[in-house]
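Dear all,

This email documents one entry for the complex benchmark we are building for the journal club exercise. For each entry we list the sequence lines for every component of the assembly. Then comes the predicted three-dimensional structure of the complex as a token string, followed by one or two observations. Please use this as the template for your own entries, and keep the labels exactly as they appear.
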Amino acid sequence: KQEVTQIPAALSVPEGENLVLNCSFTDSAIYNLQWFRQDPGKGLTSLLLIQSSQREQTSGRLNASLDKSSGRSTLYIAASQPGDSATYLCAVRSNAGNMLTFGGGTRLMVKP
Amino acid sequence: NAGVTQTPKFRILKIGQSMTLQCTQDMNHNYMYWYRQDPGMGLKLIYYSVGAGITDKGEVPNGYNVSRSTTEDFPLRLELAAPSQTSVYFCASVSGTQGRKLFFGSGTQLSVL
């Protein structure tokens, strides 16, 4: 059974800092991995999707990497802004089945 | 496109009551999902559907039922509400498993008292 872990559970940084969020998974037989953003009281918005054959994806100030062999992904946020404050979740789609397995999320606060 | 629409946004139920959470999408997606999110936790899959007339259980299906009579709609039914079903429920859809992003509704916050 796939298990996804995100560390830390919460993170507070000053504005302008570069930061890294971590996601680890136990079964490396994955199809793809997605990073989501969730604002309080809202649904999830997909930020980046990395296929199993890819090593990284970039969108603006966001860069996500994937190392299948070690069961890890990172989300790098450059020059953080207060508007980046949200909960970030990673989710893995395994090769077998149609389900996404979610991590518990990292709650990020960027202080002005 | 409205995307994925969930109703209601909030609901309070008494123990033993029943209700249906509605979910509809206008993107012609064949895959649809119901998740629940407990405070400070990730999402747990309740049920999913790969197309009209086809549904399957996820990780936590007990106490819930679903149907998929059309491509657009995927309602979630709670028959005998229990306090353990207090949670935020999210519906999501995607056009397929071929590397496409998942789209989520804004959620239904349900309290069972």
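Observations: Chain B has a mean pLDDT of 92. The longest strand of chain B covers residues 43-51.
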